[in-house]
Write a sequence for this structure.
């Protein structure tokens, strides 16, 4: 299960996703990208499930 954390960059809130506590390459993004991800969730899911 991923670890979800929150942070800030230049005054803007970020969500930070890590595979585990030792993940050196955390995935972080702000509200604008979060909205884009939500709007395109089905396409992202399909992409992730491809061989």
């Amino acid at each position: 299960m991923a670890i979800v954390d929150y942070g800030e960059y230049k005054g803007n809130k970020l969500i930070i996703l890590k595979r585990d506590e030792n993940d050196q390459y955390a995935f972080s993004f702000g509200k604008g990208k979060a909205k884009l991800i939500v709007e395109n969730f089905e396409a992202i899911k399909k992409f992730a499930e491809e061989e």
In short: Strands lie at 3-9, 12-18, 27-29. The CA atoms of residues 12 and 30 lie 7 Å apart. DSSP finds two helices and three strands in the chain.
